[in-house]
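Our collaborator T.R. sent over the components below with a one-line note: 'Predict the complex.' Nothing else. No constraints on interfaces, no templates requested, no preferences about which chain binds where. So this is a plain run: every listed entity goes in together, and whatever single assembly comes back becomes the starting point for the next discussion.
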Amino acid sequence: MLNVIKWRIKIYLNNKVIIALFLIIPIILTLWMAEDINKKGLGQMIVNIIDEDVSEFSKDYIEKIKRDESITTVQIPYEEGLQEIKKEKISAMILIKDGFSKNILEGKNKDLIELVYLKDNYYVSSFSDVFVHHYFSYIAKYRNINYVLSNYGNLVDEEEYIKKYENNYEELNNSDSYKYEFSLVEVDSGEEAYQDDNNIILYRYLLGIIFLLSYILILIQSIEFQNNKKGIVKKLKLSGIKWFINSTGNVIGTVAPTFVILSTQLTLVNLIINKSFSFNIILYTLLFSFSATLITVVIVKIFKKSEKLYLMIPYYILVLWIFGDVLFNLEFISFLDIERNLIPGIGIKGIITSFIMRTNIDILSILYDEIIYILLIIIGLGIIEYKEFKNAAS
Amino acid sequence: MLLVEFKNFTKTYTKEIVLDNISFSVEKGKILGIIGPNGVGKSTTLALMTGLTKPSEGNIYYNDKKSFNKILGFVPQDNALYESLSGYDNLSFYFDMLDIKGNKKEKISEIGEYLNIEKDLSKKVSQYSGGMKRKLDIAAALMNNPEILIMDEPTAGLDILTRNSIINLLKKINREEKTIVFTSHYISEMEDICDKIIFLKEKKIAFSGRKEDLTNYYKDFDRLEDLYIYLYNE
Amino acid sequence: MQNAKLIVFELKKNLFNSKNIAVLIVLPLLVVVLFNFAFKDLVDDKPIIKIGLIDEEDTSTSRYLVEQLLKDEDISNLINIETVEGNKEIEKIKNKEYNGIFKIPVNFTSNLINMKNTPIEIIYNKNDPLTSYALDVVTDSFSLYIEEVQKHISSTYYTTKELNNLNQYTEKINNNISLIMIGEVFNRKLGLLKNELEDIPSTSSPAYLIIMIEILILSFTTLFFMYKYKEEKKINDKLKTIGIKSWRIKILKTISYMILINLQIVLVFIPIFYYLTKTFEIEKIIFLNLIVFFMLGMWFFISSLIKKSENFILLGSLIIIFSNLFGGTLFPIVLMTYRLKFLSKFTINYWFGKEFLLLSNENADYSILLITAILALAFYFLSERGDELNA
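Returned assembly:
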């Protein structure tokens, strides 16, 4: 058995280019995407600011924008800014309109700034609050002050009121006050949880790619191995090796390198993005590698012809991407009332959720969910391998 | 009369010489056999003859350069047939591609009869035996009544009876004044039908000449096969 | 005449083969339908996240707050919010009646004055990432404002309390100020003039989605045809020996494949595109044909470099996967950050998708079209050189 495993691993690692590609690309991608995932989806917005008002208020507003970590500012002329937006080199342009300070002082929230951006820029459009909240405070202040003064102005001295108001505001601003938080109650656990700071969709995308690539790697390895097996089965039979030893050894020999590659990648993701380490991830990866290998070997043995299998890869990917519960929740098939994963034996949904929500992976629960599928596949594979061995001489 | 003459040609693939300064000629109405170990350049020689590849150095002189393609029939080592179509459809395809004038059905029937495969033409090629496929491939090559038939290992992978039938077929074709050039691993076949044999060894011609010249040259050998083994172990 | 015969032969051979029909028509149809359903949620105009709103305070201020929440466009773009009776919230979420529940607690608005954080409770299904994401966006935006509003309401409160003449009006002032501030928060973007440049139409439109899927299908189909071409190498070699030049064979095959793919376009793409967008322009078909021409050229070139059929298919499949993973098909471009978009610009999917949108806007970027055509021709030319080297 050990020899079988040893040789299977050797053949696996023989294809150095493929191994290198599938090992390195997810790692590079993780490093590339880490920052965006840790920020809540804004990415970095590059914004051009043009000040048409040139007042104390507008200058203060520009300072606040500059201090905002999610925004990088540039100051270039309008026409140039337009061209840069169209070339997608900057995200947007803010024009602080002439009358900005006048309107604020009058408490009028009207014609304050113009935001220029490409219609397609989802982030600027959805996150335009980032530009608004920096001037909102002035509006709120003068609205409050103007309301009181316009209705009760005869009862107070304007200057005195404003001064006291500003002092009170300063005090409240400087006091050790908390940040306003919403209280989040998760239905599953019934416990309060804090919002995490990840861009969930990007995180799922990254994890999806990692799992997808490991599926393809196992598939390519299995196809190459199956190809090389022509005639070898006969020789193995003659050597006296038992079919189940050969079969088990081959499976283990495929699982081992896959496990090493995938667990490296997932551990790195956990370290870089979640900034934590969990042994359960290693255990889960072992389970995943095992069940993914089983399913893949069965598919390869059924379809046999390698060119057909390679041609099927893009469709295979589509099926995994859509049904593997990677990115989608598949509400459109919710009428089937399926609670578990659609791709059996893998438990991808569970692990992705654990990564995103930073909860512990419940290995036993995943195993329990998938055990029947795994057993069925083992039986199926056993039958196929037995027949292949038995018919080798014919 | 010379049909084709190869003069001092060399073929290199990415700086590696595959054929080195080869010269030989093909006479009209004769059968030329090219033999040599695996990888010596037999298929490359045929590829040069058919124009599938060009020599890196040297020249190939055709008797009538312009219409050389029209007088040539080629049978590659792996069958050039559409497996999912019938024998008839495959021949029909080549009839159209060769732009042959005349009645297609009649021509196909004639060739089928000539090669004794007519009754199987309606079946799909995937159902043919190895020998049948080879015969169909030859039939396709004969559609335009070529003057020269170039074949790459026509008997490879066939049982002895089928090989024998193919050799007899070549004899039959040659009796109609057709020139045949073929490569093979079976020296006995060459002994049987070739007028001239070329031995390729280490990218060069080890020997080229008539069968009789060979045996005269090396008098110590009873069989051509022994001579062949000697030449390659020398 | 010979040319026409070869094209007709190629068409007949492919159309009367059930496997080819499956690859040409049936599988693409399945892919399009599947994708449409799967991606609909992400690009649909109607929000699919349903949130229930419970007002436990039930004062004029909280009712006004609820009214504003229901009217707010930024919220309604992301989530579908409606008022609901306050009981059995968790069951309602477990039953999937609602994706989440907002609960405005008792004393919410009065505590705004006292800088006491009586938070709005959000109950939701933690395993539902879309809901989590949408709620993140909403709560992030609003928490910035609630803080400011609190400070200003409290400043008004303390100031009015400090001034003797205003003392007696404090409560009335605060009630009105609270209403004003709630209104200001929900109208906060009145002062923001959005100037959307429509040079490039939106990548979240159904038209864009369908074209990205079509590009995916075209890459599969062209790869499949190239596989067939490689399988027929011996036949093509034989044709070369009878005087039909390699480039002629390539062009004739290209024409045949393009005719077959246009059949696919007519039967699969056009009906679905029309159904989704109610428009149809001939320029789009011409552009799709240019894409097919480019892809065939690319595959011809790659196949001329790689002898073994298997290796070619593997490489081709990998190219398709990476192109679609990063180019905006398997993950919408609209959700990509700057850095991811940088990666996607290395894929052909990105450029073809972009050009398609520009075409839709009658704003075609002719440089993209020109480069595509030039590259395609270059591929054909280089594939000839590659074939010669490998001959």
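Summary for T.R.: Chain A has 15 helices and six strands.
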